[in-house]
Amino acid sequence: MFFTILSTIFANNHNVALYGYPNRYEGMFTLLFYCFLYLDCKLLSSDVDVKYLIKIMISVSIIHLIVVITQLTGIYEKIIYMYTSGNAIGLTENCNFLGSLMCLISAISISGYLLYNKQEKSYYYLFIMIVSYITLLLANSSGPFISLIVTFIILLIVLSIKKRIDVKKVVIVSILLITLYPICLSKRDEITPEIKSNIKIILNLFNNKEESSKLDGVDNNSDNNSYQPNVRDLGNGRIKIWKNVWSLIKEKPILGYGPDNLGLVYEKGPYDTKNADKAHNIYLHIFVSSGLFAVIGYVLWVGYTIYSGLKSQNNTILILCFGIIAYSIQGFFNINVIEVCPYFYLTVGFMMLLVKENKLSLGKNN
C-alpha cells in the first residue's frame, strides 16, 4: 500500500489517482477501502462468524442467477428499464465481471463439497456449486471458465497429495462440469463475438479456413475475403493491449502513472486498439499504475496467502484458499472492479484470520 500512496503523490493526474477513472472508481481511496476490508476481518471473534459470513457471501450467486435468467429472457429490461442487450451480467456491469465473481464462488463451493463429509454441509456446497457454475456459463466469459477448470485440476492434485480425495464426489463434480456446459450454452442465442473471434483466429492459424468461414458465413473462395489471422487479436484484443501497456511500463517502471491513470495515458498513445482504461490483467495493471515494487508486494502477499492455505488441514481454510487461487488465475485475463474485488479481499481476510487462529490453537495444544 505504501507504494500505491507514493505513486498517487507522483501520479499524472492526482484527482483520478485519488478517486479513480470515471465509471471505474478504483483510485487510492478505493484501494484503501479494500485494505481496511481485509484488516477488518481480523476483528471477527470466531470461526463460527467466518463460516456464517462465507455462506452469506457465496449465497449471493443465487440472486445473480435469478437476475441473469430475467436478463436472458428480456424480463429484466421490462421491470428495471435497463437495457442489457440480452447479456448475462447479473448485478454487475459486464459479463466478465460476473464471470470473475462466479469463478471465485464456484471454486469455494466445489472445494467445500469435496472436503466436507457432513451431508448437510456437503449438499449445501453442491447446490451453490451448481448455481454459481450455471451463472458462470451463462455469463459466457471464457477467462474465468478456464481459470475454474485449472483450479479444479489443482484441487484434485492437492487432495491426492493430502490423501483426502473422495472418488465418488470427484466423479459427480466432473459429470456436472461436463454436462452443464453444453446445456447452458444451448440456452444462449449464439456464441459471443469474443469467443467466435478467438475460434476463428485459431482455425485460421491452423489453416482451417473452411471451418473458420462458417462462423461468419464467408466464402473463402471469394477475393473479398482478406482476413489475416493474428494471435494478438486473441482475447478480444487483450494481447495487443498487454503489449501496449508493457511499452508504457518501460517508460515509468518504478512508480507507474498513478492509480487508475492508465486510461488517461493510453488514449494519448499511437495504438491501433480502442482506448483501454484497464490492462485486462490484474498484475500488469498494478505494475503500470503503481510500479514494480507494488506488483511485487501484491504477488508476494497473494503467494504467501495461498501457501498458508495449502499447507493447512483445516477444511474452511482450504476451501477459501482455492477461491483465492481461482480468482488469482483469472486475474491474468480480467480486471479488478469495485463490484467484485471486495469479495476477494473478504475471502483473503477470512482465510488469514482462520490461519492465525489455527496457529494459536496448535500453540496452546503444544
Question: What this model shows, in words?
Answer:
With 366 residues, the chain is mainly α. It has 17 helices and no strands. It is globular. Mean pLDDT is 81; it is low at 214-227.
Distinctive features:
mainly alpha, single chain, globular, 366 residues
Describe the SSE topology.
Layout: H1 2-9, H2 14-19, H3 28-40, H4 47-73, H5 75-80, H6 95-115, H7 119-139, H8 142-161, H9 167-186, H10 193-205, H11 209-216, H12 234-251, H13 262-266, H14 282-290, H15 292-310, H16 315-330, H17 341-365
Offer a quick outline of the entry.
The protein is mainly alpha-helical and 366 residues long.
Tell the overall outline. globular
**Straight-line N-to-C gap:** 36 Å
Average pLDDT across residues? 81
**Which band does the percent of strand residues land in?**
under 5%
Biggest beta sheet attributes: none
- The number of helical runs is 17
* SS class: mainly alpha
Proportion in helices: 55-70%
pLDDT < 50 runs, ≥5 residues: 214-227
* Total beta strand runs: 0
What is Rg? 22 Å
What is the H/E string?
HHHHHHHHHHHHHHHHH
